[in-house]
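Support reply, case 0932

Customer input (verbatim):
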Amino acid sequence: MTKAEIAKAVHERVGLTKKESAQIVESVLSEIRQSLEHGDNVKLSGFGHFIVRQKHARRGRNPKTGSDITIEPRSVVTFRASPLLKNKLLAEGEK
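Our regenerated output:
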């Protein structure tokens, strides 16, 4: 699903103009993005958590040359679905 599809769904369900719907979607995603950039976790009840994790430096191997390299430390974002979402997905899969 794309941002445009989300904005269209908001437009159809809420009745706002397409432009207003697109602005709301962009605003919400911008807030989530800013929180994650600051290292804050984002919890959306009934949907899940976006969690910022720190990965430590580690040894790796260049697959092309086979030489050892050091992979630099970095931040990554992971997503954990809420139990409610997991249950809905499982129920859909059983149909």
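We compared this against your earlier run and they match. Two observations from our side: The beta strands are 42-44, 48-55, 58-61, 68-71, 74-81. The helical segments are 3-14, 18-37, 83-94. Please reopen the case if you see a mismatch on your end.
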